[in-house]
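ok trying again, last paste got cut off:
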Amino acid sequence: MISLSIELLYLKAHFLRHIGECALKSFKAFCGQNLPAVFHHADQM
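nice, full thing came through this time. structure:
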């Protein structure tokens, strides 16, 4: 029973890490496209 919950925890951690990596990639892509505009906007404020 304990080993099963450990396996589930491992799967959940792996899944969450995968989601985190995907989110980080899309966030980086988003920033890569939009950060220059954000900084330009900040300069004008």
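cool. The first helix runs from residue 2 to 44. The mean pLDDT is 85.
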